[in-house]
Structure formats: C-alpha cells, structure tokens
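Duplicate of #3305? Posting structure anyway:
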C-alpha cells in the first residue's frame, strides 16, 4: 500500500537508453531516479546504488519516500538513491579542443564490450551521446569533447539531469578500461551544478582513483568551454570475476 507521504509512479526504460544490451545505461537510470528524489534542485550530491541491472521496456515501480527514492521490479530492488552531504573531488579541466583530440585514443574504437551503449557506444549521431574518452597526453586523465545532440531534450527544450548523469558515467570506466575490457557500474554519486544546453559543446573528463579487488574507482566532471564546472561524479565499478 502507498502511504500519503509516499509518491509512486510507473517507469519503463526506453530501449534507446541502454548500456549493456537489454539493460539500462547506469548513469541514465541513476539520474532518472535522482530526479524523482529531488526534482530540479541541485543543492546536494546524490548517491545512487545499482543493486541489479534495470531491464528495458518493462513496467517498474519508482517510489519516493522521505529522503529515499527506489526503483523496483516486483520484490527486487534495482536502484536506490539518497542525498549525501559530500563534496565531490573533480579531475582537472581539459579545454574542449584538447578533449576532442583525445578521442582518437578511445580504447573502444579498437574493442568495445557494449557498442550499443547510449553514452559511449558507437551509435548514430543524434541517437546516442557518442562520448569517446581517450588519454590526455602528459596527464592521468581521459577526456572527450561532448557535442550535445538536439535530440536529448524534454518537451520544453531542457536537457534532463539523467542525460548529464549518463555523460558522467561511462567515462569513469574508460579511465580504467583497455580495448574490449568492461565492468558494471555499482554506484554513482553525482551533483549537477548548472544546466546543459542542446547543441552546446562541453568537455567530459575523468581519472581513475584506485582499485580494490574487483572494485574500480573513478571521478569525472563536465565542464563548459570556459572551464566552468557543470557537474561532477565519483563512481564504483565492479569488474568481472
């Protein structure tokens, strides 16, 4: 039963927003659940834990109660989001032209485990985000130039936070991955500070921050062309056994 203090809706993830085949892109679904938690407010970071892969084109229950938002399929908890009082460290700004040049070193061009991924897959222009991070010479960073498609806006022309979360997601994995390598996103903590505009150009930057067993850690940021921070994230990935 839904209590008076609980908001509940039904969510179905369109196939467009996939990561690994058959499941939602981790950043996109994390951002979508976050929007249910606090709407357009950006006054705190949100920690999103992905407990299980989110299926596509399936009716799921999205609930918001107090300071928690959850996504479930029947009795299975898929995603949980909570606000956190945390300052997220960010990788250094990389100018757009330099970030775009780094794309030629994108390991996914040689071998990509999830070529259909909405954020970093080899999708048609305007369909996916086509964020292809490569190593930035002389640094410990990977970066890509993000050319925001006109096709990722809401009805009012706004780029949703879920799109920004998707942009912050895969790049933290590619800070670790070589050609053909992969892992699954386990947790993404992010904060969006400013809007992203369709047709705009941004730098997406990430760095690997460590590894513990199968857990891979990374940080990412989206920057405007003048170096203004748009959004920041830190991620935990789970590598295959």
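Output from current build:
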């Amino acid at each position: 039963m839904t209590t008076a203090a609980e908001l509940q809706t039904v969510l179905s993830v369109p196939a467009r927003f996939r990561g690994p085949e058959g499941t939602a892109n981790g950043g996109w679904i994390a951002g979508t659940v976050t929007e249910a938690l606090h709407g357009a407010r950006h006054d705190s970071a949100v920690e999103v834990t992905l407990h299980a892969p989110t299926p596509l084109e399936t009716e799921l229950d999205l609930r918001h109660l107090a300071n928690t938002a959850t996504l479930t399929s029947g009795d299975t908890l898929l995603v949980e989001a909570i606000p956190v009082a945390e300052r997220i460290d960010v990788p250094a700004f990389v100018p757009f032209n330099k970030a775009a040049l780094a794309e030629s070193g994108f390991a996914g061009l040689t071998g990509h485990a999830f070529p259909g991924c909405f954020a970093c897959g080899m999708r048609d222009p305007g369909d996916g985000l086509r964020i292809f991070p490569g190593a930035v010479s002389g640094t410990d960073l990977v970066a890509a130039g993000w050319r925001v498609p006109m096709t990722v806006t809401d009805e009012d022309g706004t780029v949703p936070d879920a799109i920004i979360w998707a942009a912050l997601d895969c790049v933290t994995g590619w800070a670790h991955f070589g050609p053909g390598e992969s892992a699954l996103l386990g947790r993404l903590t992010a904060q969006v500070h400013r809007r992203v505009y369709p047709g705009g150009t941004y730098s997406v930057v990430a760095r690997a921050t460590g590894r513990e067993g199968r857990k891979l850690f990374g940080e990412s940021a989206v920057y405007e062309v003048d170096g203004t921070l748009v959004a920041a994230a830190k991620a935990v990935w789970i590598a295959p056994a």
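Confirmed duplicate; merging threads. The first helix runs from residue 26 to 38. The chain has a mean pLDDT of 94.
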